[in-house]
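The authors assume throughout that readers already know how a fold can be written as discrete tokens. For illustration, here is how one protein appears when written out as sequence plus structure tokens.
>
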Amino acid sequence: MQTRELGTSGIQITPIIMGTWQAGKKMWVGIEDAETTQAMRAAVDAGITTIDTAEVYGEGHSEQIVGEALSDVRSSVVYATKVFANHLKYNQVIEACDRSVKNLKTDYIDLYQIHWPSGSFKSEIVPIEETMSALNELKQQGKIRAIGVSNFSRTQLVEASQYGRIDSLQPPYSLFWRHVEQDAMPYCIENKISILAYSPLAQGLLTGKFGPDHKFEKGDNRAGNKLLQGENYQRAQTALNKLRPIAQRHQCSLAQLALAWVIAQPQANAIAGARNAEQATQNAKAADVQLSADELKEIDAIGRDVTEHLDDNPVMWDFIS
């Protein structure tokens, strides 16, 4: 798989990135460590060399599984993890980074990201200058190689950039969820900031595997996803039916088509989770799907049938305020 530079950091990342929220188990159902480990190994074998995790995913469990699964190939993979909104004071950032390094069984983190802006989830407000000061110190020490932010608006991204180099933004971004295009994407393009799109499959909706009457199990975070409810969900089903012939032309799955669309957008890369080895292998194949300019326009129009009916709130879940 061809790689791309992460911002201006010199770090090479794959356009398809292995996402590991599910590896933490918390807020997911039916996740087994052994299957997760196999999925990570399969992803690397298929050419995905970039792995995204976070301290909050299962309170370190996801990071630990990543560290255990990939320690023998550490030198050939890129680790991206995140510090949560409740750990953004100077000393807290330093301590959180040390915990993540230990969990990941490594000496350094390639990309260290602020997971949510200060104040999210009723966390204490910490000036971005203080958080960035800690991140700059970690970078100077060689504990991290690059700094990123996640779930930041353009305004927040611009402010953070005043205090140090930001090489990536991680927003929710898919064919069915496109707030970033109107907000931060132009700034990212202008300043060579990589976009690491999370939920590029709209939490599985773009795979086409959920039927019109699908109900999520209790404890599954997707039950609170706005796209998976009511009229939004029905519009998505209609759009999926329009996408199927395009996928068939390329002899690829709907999921691969959706991932290929994301990584064809300016500065954009796709973080795709996988529950098992087969899903990881199939995600990697999306990098081989080449869409023409006309097809990209056609897919874009189909996606807007869904996105034009969404509100202006950039957060995808009802349970996050």
About this structure: DSSP finds eleven helices and ten strands in the chain. The chain has a mean pLDDT of 94. Residues 230-249 form the longest helix (20 residues). The CA atoms of residues 169 and 195 lie 5 Å apart.
